[in-house]
Amino acid sequence: MDIETIRDYCIRKKATTEEFPFDEVTLVFKVMGKMYACIGLDNPEWLTLKCDPEYAQELREHHSGIEGAFHFNKKYWNQVSLRGDVEDKLIKQLIDHSYEEVWKKLTRKQKQEYNEMP
Tens digit of pLDDT for each residue in 105-116? Predict the structure, then answer.
């Protein structure tokens, strides 16, 4: 999977914005202001995604292309190789999972705003 496909998939998700909060090369996708994915434009070989801790560990054990995310809390964040043994279908499922993990943690008010969006 390439960076353009990832970007297109992420920005189509409801209430998603894209930003550069860390520097000019780290593209971050957020739902309602909360990060769920990021990728370095200077090294688009790794996609960082939030993950349920137990599922994160399971994924790491079964895929050499999934490991604890560099510079993130490795309990909750995985980095997924876009050139490894992870199929595009699974990458999309992991993006969906990350989005849902972040959405679950939104406040009641944020969820209400989200539900009122078209």
Answer: 999 999 999 999
